[in-house]
Structures are given as structure tokens and as C-alpha cells.
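STRUCTURE:
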């Protein structure tokens, strides 16, 4: 009887162990299945993210190309120094009746306003240069070569001007930059756009025929012209005086 009881007990224990092993295997299988699912899910997510990234790149390229196509229409919204070479031609218009100067750019046969300046122009009683002309040279921190008439005029005021006035001199009436023009009046071609020693005169008819500007503004203009002329040529800068 005892042997039968022991046999039944051992059989039951063996059955329980088998159940435990089966349950453990099922759990392990479920774990690995879930792990595979997680891997697959992660891979699917990575693929989805990759596709989304590619889509965003395509959108970016599309927008970038669109911006490139529209760049010429947005020139005036950006720094003119950076975009000045995109124009085919630059145009300066000076109105001595208003003491104003307008810088324009010509692009694809369309004219765009770039910058407006308040300037000083020739005295009303003198014969001023007018009409179409061009820029012949551009100089930053220029020397000034006063004419003999100018030297005599300064002498009457008690000022002995040298024949060459260096940059930064207190009597250098060119200021910080000068832009020589091709205009001629009575055989004289000494007309320029330049800076001034007295910015309080800007906006008045005070000069001997030149166009005076604030020094910071003439520096900007001369720099623009230099950059443009290096790329498109100085002959593509037109100047109209009236």
C-alpha cells in the first residue's frame, strides 16, 4: 500500500514539474514574441521617421528652390550691400530743387527703388551740372585736390590750402568718400558726390555744384558702387542730375 502511495505521489510531482516547465516555456516564448514585436514596431517607427524626414527634406528643397526663384523679387527686403550685384544697372537721380538723391536698380528691364538720401546741391545762383552722366571713379578716404580758384577763395577767408589735402584733414572737403562724375560745365569736369565737413548744411543749396552727403551715407554709397562695379562694371552706373 505504501508503494502504491509513493508511486502516486511521485507521478503527481512529475506532472507538476511538466506543467511548470510548459508554463515557463510559454512565458519565454511570449517574451521573445513581444521582443520581436517591439523590434518590428521600432523598425517600423524608424522607417516612418525616415520617410517623414525625407518628406521634410523634399519640402525644404522645394521651398528653397522657390525662394531662389523669388529672390530677385525680395531684393529690397534685404541688405542692399549684399544684393547690389544682382542688378543689371544702377541709377542715381539727383533733384536739386528738393535736395534729394534716389538710388535705383534696374533688373530685367524693371526699375526698383533702393535708397533715398537727403543731400546738399549747388547754390541757386550758380550754373550747375545737369543731364545724364556716369561715374568715372570711386574713392574711400580720398585726398582732395582743390582747384586754383578754390585755393584763392580759401585764402580770402584766411585759410591757406595746400595743393593736396590728405584724408582726415580738417580742411578736406571730400569727407570720407568721393565719387567722381563725368558731367562737364563750361569745360570743367570737377563735379563729384562726396562727404562734407559740415553735415548741418545737408538738405540745402550750399555747394559749388557737387552733391554733398552725410559721411556715413557717402561711405555706404561708395562701397555699394565699388562692389557693383567690380561685378558689373563702372559703366553700368548712370547718373541723372536736374
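SEQUENCE:
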Amino acid at each position: 500500500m505504501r508503494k502504491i502511495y509513493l508511486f502516486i505521489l511521485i507521478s503527481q510531482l512529475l506532472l507538476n514539474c511538466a506543467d511548470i516547465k510548459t508554463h515557463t516555456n510559454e512565458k519565454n516564448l511570449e517574451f521573445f514574441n513581444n521582443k520581436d514585436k517591439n523590434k518590428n514596431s521600432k523598425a517600423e517607427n524608424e522607417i516612418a521617421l525616415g520617410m517623414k524626414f525625407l518628406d521634410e527634406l523634399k519640402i525644404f528643397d522645394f521651398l528653397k528652390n522657390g525662394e531662389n526663384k523669388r529672390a530677385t523679387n525680395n531684393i529690397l527686403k534685404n541688405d542692399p550691400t549684399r544684393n547690389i550685384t544682382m542688378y543689371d544697372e544702377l541709377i542715381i537721380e539727383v533733384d536739386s530743387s528738393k535736395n534729394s538723391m534716389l538710388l535705383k536698380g534696374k533688373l530685367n528691364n524693371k526699375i526698383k527703388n533702393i535708397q533715398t538720401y537727403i543731400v546738399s546741391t549747388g547754390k541757386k545762383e550758380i550754373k550747375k551740372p545737369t543731364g545724364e552722366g556716369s561715374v568715372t571713379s570711386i574713392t574711400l578716404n580720398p585726398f582732395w585736390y582743390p582747384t586754383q580758384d578754390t585755393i584763392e577763395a580759401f585764402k580770402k577767408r584766411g585759410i591757406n590750402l595746400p595743393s593736396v589735402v590728405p584724408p582726415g584733414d580738417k580742411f578736406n572737403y571730400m569727407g570720407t568718400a568721393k565719387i567722381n562724375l563725368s558731367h562737364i560745365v563750361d569745360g570743367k569736369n570737377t563735379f563729384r558726390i562726396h562727404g562734407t565737413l559740415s553735415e548741418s548744411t545737408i538738405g540745402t543749396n550750399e555747394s559749388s555744384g557737387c552733391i554733398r552727403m552725410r559721411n556715413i551715407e557717402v561711405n555706404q554709397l561708395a562701397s555699394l558702387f565699388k562692389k557693383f562695379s567690380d561685378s558689373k562694371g563702372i559703366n553700368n552706373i548712370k547718373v541723372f542730375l536736374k
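REMARK: Confidence is low (pLDDT under 50) at residues 2-7, 20-24, 56-60.
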